[in-house]
Amino acid sequence: MRALPLFLAAALATSSAQAQTTSAELKNGTGEIVGKVSLTAAPKGVLVRVEAKGLTPGWHGLHFHEKADCSKADFTSAGGHTHGTDDRLHGLLNPKANETGDLPNLYVDGQGMGATEVFSSLITMAALRDADGSAVVIHANADDHLTQPIGGAGPRVACAEVK
Hints:
Blueprint: H1 6-19, E1 21-27, E2 33-42, E3 45-52, E4 58-60, E5 62-65, E6 106-108, E7 114-120, H2 125-128, E8 134-139, E9 156-162
Antiparallel strand pairs: 1-2, 2-3, 3-7, 4-6, 5-8, 8-9
């Protein structure tokens, strides 16, 4: 059997990764829909797009959490940050590496609107969509990307179930 030219193989791999996209409603603690999260599988990670409204202006921590369960008003049902299979610590600025739940902060403008598109090479779509799924959680405060265990990001204010 003849192999595909390298450029064609790369294009096919990219298009099949782009085809694997999942979206979830972002909800606040009262269950109101306050936005949308879209995740797209990439060859070496996941592209995350968040669109939110009705949040407090300023910077907010953004993380992947362990379970696709946003049923409790404080979103503790989503578990902690995803960690992967090792003992990594929290924080994009942590010299001891990153846990798989780490993402950059989300900025919300004066009208309560926030939007971002970020890439994480720390996790895969398969890991996010495992047997119990995962969640994308927005916190009340900015993540300082270093302090344990959640970078000082404070309470959880919005959650989207990734199944």
